[in-house]
Design goal:
Aldolase_II/adducin_N; HCOMODA/2-hydroxy-3-carboxy-muconic semialdehyde decarboxylase; eight-stranded mixed sheet; 14% strand; L-fuculose-1-phosphate Aldolase; alpha+beta; binds zinc ion; Aldolase_II/adducin_N_sf; Aldolase_class_II_sugar_metab
Length: 235
């Protein structure tokens, strides 16, 4: 059974809320290690309130398999289509974290500004939903077709921005996806602070790769801190 994994997913929801990445909205999922065509995600609810009992299983067509008939988020296709396109991805965070938004709407690129966010690589792709559904949508990824176009935009990257909406961060594990979502928000904030001061000296592609590999060795350290803080905050 996946009891430990579901516990970890519930904690991840609380961490992402506590660290300012998720609010009343946004979600995190994890691929089922016993069936790669399915993933786990909370039923439709605020992330900070998620417990293991609130988690449902969804297939890659976005169909929910739940004995209680519960529903999950409208934007589950973000997850299903990225899992379909990226066998290397085992966890996905979709958030509306605020500092990221300016980069999706200005053409000003989100790039790694410090050694904690080397995973961003050379540049961060921006998903323009208008190209696929016209100018009157509510910007939500409501269908398999839109999920597929988002997965195409993400390509091999770790993070994609969604114009006027938010972002998606992927990882090989819950801990890596959570780390990336938190440090994407941090990097965006730092870049906004640095930009008025002058030209930014970003990490080179080589530095981005090396720092990303280095940080992947230490994902458990911040995870334990974030977990403690989130559990204390929810008491
Ligand atoms: Zn959204």
């Amino acid at each position: 059974m996946n009891t430990e994994l579901l516990k970890e997913l519930a904690i991840a929801n609380r961490i992402l809320f506590n660290e300012g990445v998720l609010d009343g909205f946004g979600h995190i999922s994890v691929r089922n290690p016993e069936d790669s065509t399915r993933f786990f995600i909370a039923r439709t609810m605020a992330p900070a309130l998620v417990t293991p009992d609130d988690i449902v299983e969804v297939d890659l067509d976005g169909v929910v398999h739940d004995s209680q008939g519960r529903k999950t988020y409208t934007e589950r296709y973000i997850h299903s289509e990225i899992y379909r396109a990226r066998p290397d991805v085992h966890a996905i965070v979709h958030s509306h974290s605020p500092s990221v938004i300016p980069f999706g709407v200005t053409g000003y690129q989100l790039r790694p500004i410090c050694h904690m966010s080397g995973f961003l690589g050379a540049t961060t792709p921006v998903y323009e939903i208008r190209d696929f559904i016209g100018e009157t949508s509510d910007l939500l990824v409501r269908s398999q077709k839109l999920g597929r176009t988002l997965a195409d935009t993400l390509g091999k990257a770790t993070v994609a921005l969604m114009r006027g909406h938010g972002s998606v961060a992927v990882g090989e594990s819950i801990k890596q996806a959570v780390y990336r979502a938190i440090y994407t928000e941090n990097n965006a904030r730092l870049q906004l602070q640095a930009a008025p001061l002058g030209n930014i000296n970003f990490l080179t592609e080589g530095e981005a790769q090396a720092t990303s590999a280095m940080n992947d060795e230490h994902l458990d350290r911040p995870w334990q801190l974030w977990k403690r803080r989130a559990l204390e905050a929810s008491q």
